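Sample entry was shown:
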Amino acid sequence: MIILISGPNNSGKSAFAEELITGVKVQKKYDGNLIYIATMICRNEENEGRIIKHKLRRKDMGFRDIEEPFDLDNVHTDPGDRVLLEDLSNLLSNRIFDKGGSRQEVLEQLCRLEGRCDRLFIVTISGLDSEKYHGETASYINDLNYLNNTLSSMAQVHIEMKDHSPRCLKGSLNHVY
């Protein structure tokens, strides 16, 4: 099962996803394995600050953290695990710009990962407009928008965050559990 959490930067999507996967948002504690796949590569001080902020926020949430910026097939999961991918935009960027990969490779990895776990929570940036850019940046944004649309159609639940407020675009929070 895929649960997609999308929204612009700083919309609260990561914190919401962390609370949703652990059961805090619906007051249903999950006692199984929680896996957090971190995809950001620390390339500058801003990245370092975001990474530290995210680690501190989830410190006592019970996640097994896995840093895997390129290949989700390297992540071991069990069928009952709940997995949080943080985030799709970084994974896609890393695959395209560092490994010469494609959106199709990322989609296939996500499908295989979904098949290896109970619930796959995917955090992604949405609302980017490729018309404002050109070249490889525009191409990347088009690829991200394609993946977001494809995953939205595959997901049982799609939540869009805006100003730290969730809005269900598909399904409901009750469908998460």
User: Anything to note?
Assistant: The chain has a mean pLDDT of 92.
